[in-house]
Design brief:
Structural class: alpha/beta
Strand content: 25-35%
Main location: cytoplasm
Pathway: Lipid metabolism; fatty acid biosynthesis
Number of helices: 10
GO biological process, one term: secondary metabolite biosynthetic process
Oligomer: single chain
Radius of gyration: 19 Å
CATH class of the largest domain: Alpha Beta
Strand order of the largest sheet: 1-7-6-4-5
InterPro entries: ACP_syn_III_C (IPR013747), ACP_syn_III_N (IPR013751), FabH (IPR004655), Thiolase-like (IPR016039)
CATH topology of the largest domain: Peroxisomal Thiolase, Chain A, domain 1
Pfam family, one: ACP_syn_III_C
Bound molecules: acetyl coenzyme *A
Length: about 325
């Protein structure tokens, strides 16, 4: 028995903001953004489009590709740092309602940019150990809503989008989700966090304020390079695969320089690493499924290819997965 990614698809909102356009609003340049991050543009959701809307668009297209009905979905897991409602209800429940997936249980996963890998691990374990047959695993983000557009150190980094995977339990063995490593270092929680509106005092009404991203870029950069290196070493040790066995490594798309530094450490040729950060910037939990979807569309993923997903993010969290496509 295996748990296979049966189909993958994505939704990217239509509004595209180039570096030049951003540079006309805040004190930055295309040259700085490209040389420090590899980012050339980002897409942002129009007003009124919620994280759940993007998740639903990606999910519908993934279900079509998988050729299965929404009624066959047993679990819906949404990885997001930008839920429709902070706190509750879960965005996955809103997605369930919009899709009409009334037979499915639904919940969110909060693990920053590692969220998609965490959600994949949870879904594949649930499918392996329960009667469920199919799951929808979605990474979806509306980061433009929590970005401080006056803070040039973070405003240039993020974008919106969603990616959805249909997972199915199959009788065949040796394919699908083969191995996971997840980790966290909560001592770095304040290196990347959402500045909260002050908590309401008892019996007093609190005016709603918008939470915004606060990031210690240097600390997150160092954590990212270190955690990618450690998690790849641990995964190779755990699975006994060698780097040469992998057709592709698909990292979380946070900063091309982070990926290049990790690649140099392992002497991994950059043409084995898929990057699409130039067009979409950092879409947090959506970035890995967005990358997988683009690779799938371009025919870069062949059946039986061994691939590695690697992520890191707020928490601080990190994780990796080995998948035989
Ligand atoms: N345009 C122009 N100049 C800028 C900009 C900008 N957008 N942002 C910062 N600068 C300036 C700074 O003010 C500083 O100027 P100074 O030397 O006069 O003080 C200079 O550029 C260098 O700033 P640094 O912060 O040292 O730049 P650095 O090379 O470290 O790059 C960056 C910053 C890109 C943010 C990097 O630290 C990084 O990528 N960190 C990781 C971020 C990340 O991956 N976050 C997401 C994690 S995943 C998740 O869960 C969401």
């Amino acid at each position: 028995m295996s748990v296979l990614i049966r189909a993958i698809s994505a939704y990217v909102p239509p509004i595209r903001i180039s570096n030049e356009e951003l540079a006309s609003r805040i004190d930055t340049t295309d040259e700085w953004i490209r040389s420090h991050t590899g980012i050339g543009a980002r897409h942002i959701a129009p007003d009124g489009v919620q994280t759940s809307d993007m998740a639903v668009s990606a999910a519908k297209s993934a279900l079509e590709k998988a050729k299965i009905s929404i009624h066959e979905i047993d679990y819906i897991i949404v990885a997001t740092a930008t839920p429709d409602y902070f706190g509750f209800p879960a965005t996955a429940c809103i997605v369930q309602d919009k899709l009409g997936a009334y037979g499915a249980s639904a919940f969110d996963v909060t693990a920053g940019c590692t969220g998609f890998i965490y959600a994949l691990n949870i879904a594949s374990s649930m499918l392996e150990t329960s009667h469920g047959r199919n799951a929808l695993v979605i990474g979806a983000e509306g980061l433009s809503r929590i970005t401080d557009w006056n803070d040039r150190s973070t405003a240039v980094l993020f974008g919106d989008g969603a990616g959805a995977a249909v997972l199915s339990r199959i009788d065949e063995t040796g394919r699908g989700c083969l191995s996971f490593i997840l980790g966290a270092d909560g001592s770095g929680a304040k290196d990347l966090y959402l500045v909260q509106p002050e908590r309401a005092k008892a019996f007093e009404r609190q005016p709603p304020l918008v939470p915004v991203i606060s990031m210690n870029g240097k600390k997150v950069y160092d954590f990212a390079v270190k955690s990618i290196t450690v998690v790849i070493e641990r995964l190779l040790h755990k699975t006994a695969y060698r780097l040469e066995d992998f057709a592709w490594i698909i990292p979380h798309q946070a900063n091309a320089r982070i990926v290049q530094a990790a690649a140099k450490r392992f002497s991994i040729p950059m043409d084995k690493i898929f990057l699409n950060i130039e067009e979409y910037a950092n879409t947090s939990a959506a970035s890995i499924p967005l990358a997988l979807s683009e690779m799938d569309e371009k025919g870069l993923l062949k059946p039986n290819d061994l691939i590695m997903l690697v992520g890191f993010g707020a928490g601080l969290t990190y994780g990796a997965a080995v998948i035989r496509w």
